[in-house]
Structure formats: structure tokens, C-alpha cells
Design goal:
The complex is a heterodimer of chains A (about 375) and B (about 500). Helices cover about 20% and strands about 45% of the residues of chain A. Chain A is an alpha/beta fold. Chain A has a 19-stranded mixed β-sheet that branches. In chain A, helix 1 (about 1-10) packs across helix 3 (about 25-30) and helix 6 (about 330-345) packs across helix 7. Chain A starts with a helix and ends in a 5-residue tail after the last helix. Chain B starts with 16 loop residues before the first helix and ends in a 6-residue tail after the last helix. Chain B has 13 helices and 20 strands. The longest helix of chain B has 18 residues, at about 140-155. Helix content of chain B is about 30%, strand content about 30%. The radius of gyration of chain B is 22 Å and the shape is globular. In chain B, strands 3-5-8-10-13-16-18-20 form an 8-stranded parallel β-sheet. In chain B, helix 11 packs across helix 12 (about 450-465). The chains are: A alpha/beta (about 375), B alpha/beta (about 500). Chains A and B meet through strand 18 and strand 19 of A and strand 18, strand 19 and strand 20 of B. Strand 18 of chain A pairs antiparallel with strand 19 of chain B, so a sheet runs across the interface.
């Protein structure tokens, strides 16, 4: 069964999968030992969950996916009209966006536990033909018998189009989630992605981005803040295929208590992708003797006219900064919280929508509150 | 401490002739010159071959068993596939596990003129060229005398420096205690193979409180040139001892596509200090990737004692394929590990090299500096692991790995693994990849420096941080080696 899940989740051949799961193999094996029933796509949406995502600003530009299936009942796309179409063929949702959408759209994945552990999966293929769209993606769930979700998404961003993706994944302790995000950028297309990973029994994000057209550009921001026994594994794989492509990756990680955080950030510059500019920074805070952080920034360069750099660190809160704050009368616990929050917030700076940025920052607070000494 | 010059062309007059004769006889008795054929075992590997190797060396029972155990374990293993290398499958039954290099040239006239040209550029004295090219007799006189004199001086200091097969006979208790204690026989595929069939290698023992009076080098040892493909080196520095060891072939060694699977084990007890420098320039194969050495080496140092230090420095310019990760196990509190590396791949060379720093003791520190240069169709990979175990409070690591690309067809890759389990540790990694900038080239050329010279100047600057760690003679040679190896990479 462990092998079956390995075959199901991940990319590449058996060897590549094996390698990409090296730090999460145990977590995957534990999941494989559990029996799952199919999750109920028609489950009633509890009010407590609705309040987690029901932001007034996106009420009429929202798609709600309940246990893997788009819910007609809770979705509402009245404001975006003809610019967005949603269809379904062969179990894959096809979303087409054409035009400039000024206000953010929201897509919410709701996982509602059954009496027994349950699982769902969903496949989406999204095409952004033209224009610009901000997409707020959110995963919400309730604690319970445990849910294993799997979402696979292919996004094609057309020439000159731009997608701003803000993804928030705040999971209860019993929920596990596998996400594959496969993005393909045409010439002069831009993806600006911000991922926030909080909680979860095991959450894994496979994000692969192909900069296929000239001057395509990726900005990836992300943070995981984990405590309890949370386990988050991010595998980023960026391929520069065309000339003059750019990627700028900035990820932060915090692991406290017994949590485990994994970050793998690979940048490949293919032969002929001259003029590529690649940058990756990954910094982590390890806050507990029982927590663990594993990071692996990778560069594979096959062209010579490139600039590529990466940096990764694992460390602690700067003692001098803490001392500075305390010398100004801020209690230790508050000082620590301020430091950790500031550390995480750096990745949110690129979000231009102030309201959204503050909301995300607010969600981070309970995950860094009272960070242990 | 004055470093001993590498020059061999000044005969040591003080060496009494009988010492020379004795040494020469020993050499003969090993059959290196006389009857080559009789020393070769037929190709193939099985338990009998392992026993035969052991018997030929008059090894004690325990070592024969040790080899056999390694061999049996090797049979259950598969070659590692994780490295970013394209390796043609190796037919282990086609290799002769105890043989002399074939086609040894009889005189310098038989040596490939291209090779001689290289020596010329390196400034290797004529006398040494013959020796390096593998011409048999000529240089032996000097090297034997030199080796013997040094040995005397070393013995006075209490340092044991000899062939490992000799150590097995003379100091069995030391060999038995330390052999395989850092790299266990079953550690990995190639280490297991080496444990089963290792032909020879060096043994160094520096006792308590002794600072080795000179830099030790395989170059000085009689057997050095003929230790074969499966070399085994064991170096032990007791409490407060200190030693610097140079390894390498300082000029190209002409060989067919051949497997070289060596194992190097270093043990540092309390306050000991070991510096291990390598300049590796095995035959890299020709421009089209035909021939060349497969250099699959396991090197590991164990900082067993508190405040011990192990420092690896390597300049890798040769070999068709390099698979090598000199590592440090930082077991003792406050122990220090260092890795400084320059790896160059040109034409169709491939290198997957790096280090492992395993932090186990408290306040352990490690530093990694890796400089990769890719040219032609070369593929150059840095692969490193920095692991901080739970108990390694206050561990500290800094890693810097830079890659330089020269040409459109080459590749430079970086695969660092960072695993941290202690919240008191600080681990930092940075890497950059770039080509030689046009600005730099333009600056040099505008001052009348030719393109090739400019490139070698820039490359030299790029590697400076590592060259600084090398003993002086090695540093000079390393610099020249890079120049020679990069020839034809520009333009």
C-alpha cells in the first residue's frame, strides 16, 4: 500500500519519486496503513467552515469544491460573467479565464470528514488565455476521522498573461493533503505565487513551473509554520527552457514542537535558455529539540549565459535582536512572537492587496504564538 | 616546519648504498620489475581470487576472513545510481584484481608525445617525467634513497609511515584496531569491493603528542606508483598529534579506461589535527570521452576525539568520471571538519563530488568551500550533506559552492542536502553559478592580456580560496594543472 501511494503521488519515474519522498517516506507509509472510504461530495457545509472562507470581497467570484467536487450550491461566479468558464470532461474540471479581472477570485477546497477516514481527489486544468487574474486559493477542513485529499492542477498561462496566486492551506491535525501544481508559462507570462502552509498531519506540495516562453517570469513566495506533529513537504521544481526567463524564489520555514518541515527547491536551466536569471533563498527557524528541518536547494545548469544563485539556512531567532526588544520592556514571549512573525511575514510583502495581506498575517499568528523556548 | 621539496632529481648522497640495494631488493622481491606476468591474476572475481590476493601478501587469517566477508557482502549490493553521472556498466569479471599496469613504456621515447608536452608545461623535471609516465627503472634509485632517508627521520619521531601490507605484518594490532572502523567493509558498493580486493596503500600512524616533522606524501613511498586500482589508506593521529598528508599523482598517468576504487580512512583522537591534500590528475580520456579513469573513491575522516580537526583539500582535474565525497564525522565535542575543493571537468569528463559533514558532538564546526569549473562538454556536480544530529548543540556550518561555466555545452549542478535536528545549530549554504563575465575579460584584454591568459587568471582567482589551503608546491602545480586542463576551452 505504501508503494501504491508512492505511485499515485509524485512526479517522474520510480527513482525520482523515491528520491523526492526521502524525507516524508515514513509519513506516507503511516498514511498507507490506513483504510479510507470515498469522501461524500454532497456533504453539508458546516457553518464553522463557511466563516473561515466567507470573505465579503470575493462572495460573487467564488468556486467552492466540497470533498473534491465543485459544489453548484455554494459556488457563485456572478461577477466575473463571461470571462470565466467552468466545465468538466472526463473527471477533470476545465477552467478558462480570458480577460482582466480586477477583483480577486476565490477558490475554496473544503474537506468535510466522515465517520471513518475518507479521501477525495480532484483534477483541474486551467487556462489563462489573456489578461490578469488574482486567485485566492484556500484549503479548509475540520478535525475528525481524518481526510486525505489530492488535488492535481495544470495551469497554462498564455502569452503576456499574468496570474497572482495566493494559496492558503491551514489544516487540522487529522488532515493530509497532496497537491500537484503544474504551471506552464508562455512568452512574457508571469506567475506570482504565494503559498502559506500551516498545520496538517502530512501536507505535500509538488510545484513544477516551466518557463517555456521567452521572458516568462516566476516569483514564488512561501512559508510553512508548523507545530505539534505537523509535517509539511514542499518540492519546487522550476525549469528555464526559453531565453531571458526569470525566477525569484523566497521561502521561509518555522518548525516548533515535534514538527517536521521539508523544502526542496530545484532550478534547472536547460541548454539554450541563455539570459536566464535564477534566484532562490530559503531560510528556516528550528525552534525545538524535537523538531526537524531538511532543506535542499538544487541548481542544474546547462547553459552558460546565466546568473543563478541559491542560499539556504537553518538557525534560530537572533539572540541580540531578542535582547534588544527585551531591553525595551517587551516580555520574552512577545519578543519571540514578534521575531517569528516578522520572519514569516517577509514572504507576504509581495501581495499588493493590503486587506488580503493582513488577513494572511493574522492567520499566521496562532501558529507562531508562544513559540517554545 | 619546513616543507620537504618534491624535487627528486637531486640524489641524496647520504644514503648508503646498501640501504639502496636493500630497498631495491625489496622492490624486486615484490616482483614489480622482474616477472610481471607471474604477478598478474587472471581477470575475474570470486572467493579464490580474494584468497589468492591475500595469500600473495602473506596476510594473517583474520584479514583474509575480513576480505571474504566484504566480498560476500559486495555480492549482495548494487552499484549506486543516485549520482548525476552516466556510467557505462562495469564488467567486474573483466578486471584483473591483482596486476601490473600493462604496456608500461620502456623508455621516454615510447611515451605519448602529447603527454610529454603536458609535463613540459607543468615544468616537471625530465627525471621525474620518466617516473611519472611509468617508465620503470630510472627514477627508482632516487626515490628509494629519498624514501628511506625520510623513513629514518620519521622513525625517530615515532611516526610509522609504510605500505599497508607492511603494516599488516609489522603492526597488526594497529591495523586490526582501525581498519574499517571509519569506512566499514559494507559501507557502499565500491568500498566493499575495495575491502575485498585492496592491493596496497599507505599506512600512517602518528603517536600521542607528535607533530609529524615533514609533510608525508605518497610520492615518497616506493610503492606509490604501483599501488594499483584498489588503494587503501589508513591514517591515525593519536592525542595531540598533527600530520599533513599529500596524495596524488602530480601529472597525468596514462591508462586505459580503468576502475580506480580507493578507500581512505582517517582517525583523529583528542586534539589531533589531520590535513589531507589531494591533487588528482588521472587520465581524463580524450576529447571524445574515450578512455580515462573511473575514479570511485570513498574518503572519510572520523574526528573521534574532542577538539580534533580534519581538513580535506582536493584539486580534481583528471579522471573520466569522479565519484568522490571526502567526509568528516564530527563525533568529538568541539571538533572541526573542513572541505576545500576545486573540481574541473573539460571535454566529456563528469564529476559528482562533494562532502558530508555529520555533526554529532557539541559545538562541532564545519566549513565547506567548493569551486566547480565546467568546460567543453564537462558535467560537474557538487553533492553535499550537512547533517546536525540531535545532540550536536551549538553546531555550526557554512557552505559555499560556486560554479564557473566556460562554454555552451557544459553543465554545473549543485545538490546540497541540509538536515538539522538540533535547535542550537546554525547551518548556512550559498551557491552561485555564472560564466566568466565579459566585463572581466574585457578589462584584462584591454590591458593587453590574451584571452587564454585572461581566462586562466580569472579561473585562478576563482580558485584562490582553495589553493591557499594547499601546501605551496601543490598549489603551484594545481594552478598549472588547471591551465593545462583548460587548454582549448576558450575561443
Amino acid at each position: 500500500m505504501g508503494a501504491a501511494l508512492l505511485e499515485e503521488f509524485g512526479r517522474g519515474d520510480a527513482r525520482a519519486r523515491e528520491e523526492s519522498w526521502r524525507y516524508s517516506k515514513m509519513a506516507l507509509r503511516a498514511l498507507a496503513q490506513q483504510e479510507f472510504v470515498a469522501a461524500d461530495a454532497n456533504a453539508e457545509l458546516p457553518e464553522t467552515l463557511r466563516t473561515q472562507f466567507d470573505w465579503p470581497a470575493t462572495r460573487r467570484r467564488r468556486v467552492v469544491v466540497v470533498n473534491g467536487a465543485v459544489s453548484e450550491r455554494y459556488s457563485d461566479l456572478a461577477d466575473v460573467g463571461a470571462m470565466v468558464t467552468v466545465g468538466e470532461t472526463g473527471g477533470t474540471y476545465a477552467v478558462r479565464i480570458d480577460g482582466k479581472i480586477d477583483e480577486p477570485m476565490q477558490i475554496v477546497y473544503v474537506s468535510i470528514p466522515s465517520a471513518q477516514p475518507s479521501r477525495w481527489q480532484t483534477n483541474t486544468s486551467m487556462v489563462i488565455v489573456n489578461g490578469f487574474v488574482t486567485l485566492i486559493e484556500q484549503h479548509v477542513s475540520l478535525d475528525g476521522a481524518g481526510v486525505l485529499g489530492a488535488s492535481r492542477r495544470r495551469i497554462d498561462i498564455g502569452e503576456g498573461a499574468r496570474l497572482d496566486l495566493v494559496s492558503l492551506c491551514d489544516l487540522p491535525e487529522s488532515m493530509s493533503l497532496y497537491r500537484l501544481l503544474d504551471v506552464h508559462l508562455a512568452a512574457k507570462a508571469t506567475l506570482h505565487a504565494t503559498h502559506v502552509l500551516l498545520g496538517g498531519r502530512m501536507q505535500r506540495l509538488d510545484m513544477q513551473v516551466e518557463l517555456a516562453g521567452e521572458q516568462a517570469r516566476l516569483e514564488s513566495r512561501g512559508v510553512f509554520a508548523l507545530r505539534g506533529r505537523a509535517h509539511a513537504d514542499t518540492q519546487l521544481d522550476v525549469r528555464h527552457v526559453a531565453r531571458d526567463t526569470t525566477c525569484d524564489i523566497l521561502w521561509r520555514g518555522v518548525a516548533d514542537q515535534r514538527a517536521r518541515g521539508i523544502f526542496h527547491g530545484a532550478i534547472t536551466v536547460a541548454e539554450g535558455a541563455d539570459g536566464s536569471d535564477a534566484k532562490l533563498s530559503n531560510k528556516n527557524l528550528l525552534l525545538s529539540a524535537l523538531a526537524e528541518i531538511d532543506t535542499q536547494p538544487v541548481l542544474e545548469i546547462y547553459a552558460d549565459e546565466v546568473k543563478a544563485a541559491h542560499g539556504a539556512t537553518v538557525g534560530q531567532i537572533d539572540e541580540r535582536a531578542l535582547f534588544y526588544l527585551r531591553s525595551r520592556g517587551i516580555p520574552l514571549a512577545d519578543a519571540r512572537r514578534m521575531m517569528v512573525t516578522a520572519f514569516c511575514r517577509e514572504v507576504l510583502d509581495g501581495i499588493t492587496d493590503v486587506d488580503l495581506r493582513n488577513r494572511l498575517a493574522g492567520l499566521l499568528v496562532p501558529h507562531v504564538d508562544g513559540a517554545s523556548a | 616546519m619546513a616543507t620537504q621539496p618534491l624535487e627528486l632529481d637531486v640524489p641524496d648522497e647520504s644514503a648508503p648504498t646498501d640501504v639502496v640495494a636493500e630497498a631495491l631488493n625489496r622492490r624486486y622481491s615484490a616482483g614489480f620489475v622482474t616477472d610481471i606476468e607471474s604477478e598478474s591474476l587472471p581477470p575475474g572475481l570470486n572467493e579464490d581470487v580474494v584468497r589468492a590476493i591475500s595469500a600473495r601478501k602473506n596476510e594473517p587469517e583474520w584479514l583474509t576472513e575480513w576480505r571474504l566477508k566484504a566480498y560476500r557482502h559486495w555480492l549482495t549490493m548494487t552499484p549506486p545510481h543516485w549520482a548525476k553521472l552516466q556510467i557505462e556498466p562495469i564488467d567486474f569479471q573483466a578486471i584483473s584484481y591483482y596486476s601490473q599496469p600493462k604496456n608500461r613504456p620502456k623508455s621516454l621515447d615510447d611515451v605519448d608525445p602529447k603527454l610529454l608536452e603536458t609535463y613540459d608545461k607543468l615544468g616537471v623535471p625530465l627525471h621525474e617525467r620518466a617516473r611519472l609516465a611509468g617508465v620503470a627503472v630510472d627514477a627508482v634509485f632516487d626515490s628509494v634513497s629519498v624514501g628511506t632517508t625520510f623513513r629514518k627521520e620519521l622513525a625517530e619521531a615515532g611516526v610509522i609511515f609504510c605500505a599497508i601490507s607492511e603494516a599488516v605484518r609489522e603492526h597488526p594490532e594497529l591495523v586490526q584496531k582501525y581498519l574499517g572502523s571509519v569506512v566499514p567493509p559494507g559501507d557502499n558498493y565500491f568500498a566493499a569491493l575495495n575491502s575485498a580486493v585492496f592491493s596496497d596503500g599507505s599506512f600512517v600512524f602518528v603517536p600521542k603528542g607528535v607533530r609529524c616533522p615533514m609533510e608525508l606524501s605518497t610520492y615518497f613511498r616506493i610503492n606509490a606508483r604501483d599501488t594499483g586500482q584498489f588503494e587503501r589508506t589508513l591514517l591515525i593521529a593519536e592525542e595531540r598529534a598533527s600530520v599533513s598528508y599529500l596524495e596524488g599523482c602530480t601529472a597525468p598517468m596514462r591508462d586505459e579506461n580503468q576502475l580506480h576504487a580507493a578507500v581512505v580512512e582517517l582517525v583523529a583522537l583528542d586534539d589531533a589535527n589531520i590535513k589531507y591534500s589531494t591533487v588528482q590528475n588521472w587520465y581524463p580520456g580524450d576529447e571524445n570521452g574515450v578512455g580515462g579513469i573511473y575514479n570511485f573513491v570513498t574518503k572519510r575522516g572520523d574526528c573521534r576525539g574532542a577538539r580534533s580537526k580534519i581538513s580535506w583539500t582536493q584539486v580534481e582535474t583528471g579522471s573520466a568520471i569522479t565519484w568522490k565525497y571526502p567526509s568528516c564525522v564530527l563525533r568529538g565535542d568541539d571538533s572541526v571538519g573542513e572541505f576545500n575543493s576545486v573540481a574541473l571537468t573539460h571535454h566529456r569528463q563528469q564529476a559528482d563530488t562533494g562532502t558530508k559533514m555529520i555533526h554529532i558532538g557539541r559545538n562541532t564546526k564545519s566549513k565547506i568551500v567548493s569551486k566547480g569549473i565546467s568546460a567543453g562538454r564537462g558535467q560537474n556536480t557538487y553533492r553535499g550533506l550537512v547533517k546536525v544530529e540531535k545532540g550536536a548543540e551549538g553546531a555550526r556550518n557554512h557552505t559555499q559552492c560556486d560554479s564557473l561555466l566556460i562554454g555552451k555545452k557544459c553543465g554545473a549542478h549543485t545538490f546540497p542536502y541540509i538536515e538539522v535536528k538540533n535547535p542550537g545549530a546554525i547551518v548556512e549554504h550559498e551557491a552561485t553559478t555564472s560564466k566568466i563575465s565579459d566585463d572581466q575579460l574585457f578589462y584584462c584584454r584591454s590591458r593587453g592580456i590574451g584571452e587564454e591568459d585572461a581566462v586562466s587568471m580569472i579561473v585562478d582567482g576563482f580558485c584562490k580560496q582553495v589553493f591557499r589551503e594547499l601546501p605551496m608546491e601543490f598549489a603551484v602545480e594545481a594552478k598549472k594543472l588547471l591551465e593545462v586542463s583548460l587548454e582549448g576551452a576558450v575561443g
